[in-house]
Amino acid sequence: MPTLRQFATPVTIGAFLLSAVTGVLMFFHLDAGLNKAAHEWLSWALVAGVLAHLTVNYRAFKGYLKRPLARGVMAGFAIVLVASFLPLAGSSGSPVPVVMDGLAKAPVVKVIALTGQEEPLVLSRLAAAGFDADPQQTIASLSGGDRGAQGEILKAIFAE
């Protein structure tokens, strides 16, 4: 039967490769398909692999903690991690969540008006996408509060 030692490094390397490639693709906005989902969910494999790797190599890891350079590098990353939770001064963040929230609260007919398209055409596109919309209904109520469904509704409305 395989031991933890036999799995630790291959899982760490494989999960790192997946996480690194999908992360770089996301950074450059080149991700497609399931890249984002794979990056978010399969990064747990990286966590598991690293924990397994630390478990089987604990004595060597303790040795690194005695080296000033290694401690300095790890402390530097710890400081960057803590700093990543601090809000940016003077930054109000992305306007996208505010816009999306406003669109979700708006009646379908008003969002259709933003497109400059004919209401019956857009309503038929919504119906074809599986959303039987009352023009006065809000996008949030049409989607049942599901953000994924809201995105599909907006995609159907703004499609040309």
Automatic annotation (TrEMBL):
Residues 8-58 form the Flavinylation-associated cytochrome domain. The chain crosses the membrane at residues 7-29, 41-61, 73-90. It comes from the Bacteria. Coiled coil: none annotated. It holds the Pfam family DUF4405. The keyword Cell inner membrane does not apply. InterPro entries: DUF4405. Keywords: Membrane, Transmembrane, Transmembrane helix. This is DUF4405 domain-containing protein.
